[in-house]
Amino acid sequence: MNKLKVAVIGVGSMGSNHARLFAELPAAHLVAVADSNLALAENIGERYSCKAYADYIDMLAAEKPDAVSVVVPTAMHEKVASAVLRAGSHVLIEKPIASTLEEGERLVALATKVNRKLMVGHIVRFNPAIRNLRERIQANELGHIFQIMCRRIGPFPARIRDVGVVIDLAPHDIDVMRFLTGTEPVRVFAEIAKRVHTDHEDLVFGLLGFPQDITGALEINWLTPTKVREVLVLGERGMFRVDDLTQDLYFYENAAAEGELWQSLRTIKGVSEGTMVRYALKRYEPLRAELEAFLDCILNDTEEPVNGQDGLQALRIALALIESGVTHKSIEV
After folding, report:
1. In a designed cystine with 56, which of 34, 68, 232, 325 is the match (CB 3.0 to 4.6 A)?
2. Where are the domains of the chain?
3. Residue 220: HSE in the Cβ half-sphere, 13 Å Cα cutoff
4. What integer pLDDT is reported at residue 271 of this predicted model?
5. H or E element: which one contains 248?
6. Are the C-beta atoms of 170 and 220 separated by less than 8 Å?
């Protein structure tokens, strides 16, 4: 198998996992890591038998990697990823794509100009339960979708300093809603608050209006002393529930929706409790699947599974949620 020379810039908690997996994947040869904390980079380099650099510019010049994971604070995404692209490397950039739309748009334009892949790390798409759910929705097992609800709550992560909970976490759930419905929201409304993490908002409750009368809702905070990652999709035939942490997928049947697919909502008898099913799914590490997909799109010269436009759209909607929270108005997107 052809191997790509890969590197990781930023080897904190998430970046160290990128390095670990690149060191294991058959299609990758981890040649270097870079971090402004040289001791940290050296520790990771020693662990995975690759070179360590304090300066990513030096690393790019010396190692000339084919592909690079950029896992640095959001405010540095454009600066670092631009340098990687100009050095001739393909880029996987952790979400969000950038801290502003203008920065993200410049990155997408640069990737196109230099003919390099730019993939955005929306890792939830690679959760096996989410992928199986999408297949079932596309097979029309749920009928018409009424509502999608995403909950992403837990304690404040010490790694975050430069953005609030909306920019850091909402792109996950915005992207999941787009991924599952295949549509784009047309308006958003949100309530945001600063309770503990006073530099930025640490709580958001948002509503998203999608075409075909689909309602989206997301609840995200850094205030809950237990971690919850949940997706609920309600439709004519019942409700799917994903536990993102355990990779479990459940279906709660609407027993009143029987027989052939109905012509319209009026033909449904009503809603009543039916059978609950927990699907047996093969579990795997979503980040591994994401990195494999990144390497595969380079080796086979195919479109990125999550491209720059996906990243821009998730950021655009997240910023609209913040605008709505500040102005207390519904925002058309």
Report:
1. 34
2. 4-116, 125-284+317-332
3. 25
4. 74
5. strand 248-254
6. yes
Considering only CA atoms, which of 162, 189, 138 is closest in space to residue 317? 189
3-state secondary structure of 203: strand
**pLDDT value of residue 261:** 47
Degrees (nearest 5) of the Cα angle 87, 77, 169?
145
Say which residues have a Cβ less than 8 Å from residue 184's Cβ, sequence separation at least 6.
Answer: 178, 210, 211, 313, 333
Q: Which of 212, 175, 209 has the alpha carbon at shortest distance from 189? A: 209
Q: Which residue has the tokens 């509502």?
A: 147
Within 10 angstroms of residue 101's Cβ, the number of other Cβ atoms is 14
Cα–Cα distance for residue pair 207/237, rounded to 1 Å: 23
Residue indicated by tokens 């690679």: 126
Which of the residues in the chain have pLDDT under 50? 260-262, 265-266
125-284+317-332: what fold? Dihydrodipicolinate Reductase; domain 2 (3.30.360)
**CA-angle at 168, arms to 167 and 174, nearest 5°:** 65
Pick the CATH number of 4-116 from 3.40.50.620, 3.40.50.1820, 3.40.50.720, 3.40.630.10: 3.40.50.720
**Residue whose token pair is 């052809």:** 2
Q: How far apart are CA 170 and CA 33, in angstroms?
A: 28
Q: Which H/E stretch holds residue 287?
A: helix 286-299
Phi–psi pair at 56, nearest 5 degrees: -70, -25
**What's the length of the chain?**
333
**Contact call for residues 118 and 93 (beta carbons, < 8 A):** yes
CA distance 98 to 298: 22
Would you tell me the crossing angle of helices 101-114 and 308-327 to the nearest 10 degrees?
A: 170
Tokens 């237990």, residue located: 226
The per-residue pLDDT for 1 is: 57
Strands 248-254 and 28-34: unpaired
